[in-house]
Amino acid sequence: MPQQTSISESRCPQCNAKLDTIADPTAPDARFKPGDYVVCIECGIILILSADLSPRPPSGAEWHAVICNRELFVSLKKLQLKVLSFIQWQKQQKPPLKP
Question: Is the full-model pTM beyond 0.90?
């Protein structure tokens, strides 16, 4: 199981999900730092960690840097696709609501 890092509680700017923990399932001993990218587990939006490790949307300049770095762009999109696949799988596991 990946190491989880507690962060100051904030909200996803896209879906308003509570964000209070970050983890990297591909690197169990990951140490997060400002400027690292993360993906919201509820909606799949790509965010960047601020100085206090709170997730926020990337600025235009930060997006430009991602787009200009093919390796970073591809790795972020792969991570986002994995999260979106997980979200879809999770939705399928929930029993249908009864009327």
Answer: no
